[in-house]
Amino acid sequence: MLVLRFQSRGSWTYAISFRERVTHLFKTAQDKTRIAANYNQALAEIDKKLPDVAILDVKLDKGDNDGIELLSHIKTKNKDVPVIIISGHASIEMAIKSLHYGAFEFIEKPFDQERLLNFVSRAVENFNLKTQNKEYENKLFSSYEIIGDSKNTINILDQIKKISLTESRVFIYGPSGSGKELVSRKIHKNSSRNKNPFIVLNGALLDSKKYELELFGEEKENGSISYGALEKANKGTLLIDQISEIPLDIQSKILRVLTDQKFKRVNGNSLYWCSDRRLGLHRHVAVIC
Topology of domain 148-288, per CATH? Predict the structure, then answer.
């Protein structure tokens, strides 16, 4: 658990006692706790190791919304990490803003200790469930095998074996339910990339305004970076499901990345090289690149 600095604009005595109060609360609950006294310390702690839960004050020493900036920073690293926002200057607008950026809960000061403990307990449970679901999903697909002794099945298994040893672009096609994703995961599992991420992006489920953000990431005005699927899948495999649902202009940009092996983040100026294997699926076609 990460408890980050609280209310530096108040008296120093109050700030210290408040931070110690929260820290003591979780030490009593036998949780491992890390604290940070300002924005830069908090950023360093987050970058060193992500917590299971982060408790942030909206206002730190850097500005009126530096807690929200840290929230955004955590979410770019792992969107599943629950963040509880605490504020002594709460407003409906501030609460909505923090929840919009992905906060698990928003609490006004002064707060009831049992209420905070309850929120943290729920947050940890929620985080563990999401982590376990991902592990089960990976194990589920890892345990699946393509079974058969027909000529076509043997031919597919031979092709998977050959493809897994290369970095070649591959085109897979077949009707819905024929096992295109299973073949994709099998290629990833048998390749030298199998220790690195297998990222799935569903073109049909993406917000139409966020295709580029989800793929390429974004460099925000406050200096924080939101990483896209291309960077998250670095040295691993990126599966783009239902690619036909993605607008043609975005598809052309994906093709450019396939050709040049580099891209720019949204609002960014620098080119970034990518070395992930890309797979694209739609209802009847899968492309492995």
Answer: Rossmann fold (3.40.50)
Q: Name the band, by pLDDT with cuts 50, 70 and 90, for residue 286.
A: very low
Is 148-288 the same fold as 2-131? yes
Cα separation of 281 and 287, whole Å? 6
Q: In Å, what is the CA distance from 289 to each residue of 141, 172, 187, 262, 279?
A: 21, 10, 12, 14, 6
Asked if residue 169 lies in contact with residue 288, where contact means CB atoms within 8 angstroms, the answer is yes
What is the domain partition of the chain in residue ranges? 2-131, 148-288
Tens-place pLDDT, residues 53-112: 888 888 777 665 678 888 888 888 888 889 988 887 767 777 788 888 888 888 887 777
Q: What is the dihedral of CA 65, 72, 220, 42, to 10 degrees?
A: 70
Q: Report the 3 state secondary structure along 108-147.
A: ECCCCHHHHHHHHHHHHHHHHHHHHHHHHHHHHHHHCCCC
Using alpha carbons, list the distances in angstroms from residue 216 to 63, 133, 225, 257, 262: 28, 26, 11, 10, 10
Please name the fold of domain 2-131: Rossmann fold (3.40.50)
What single-letter amino acid sits at 94? M
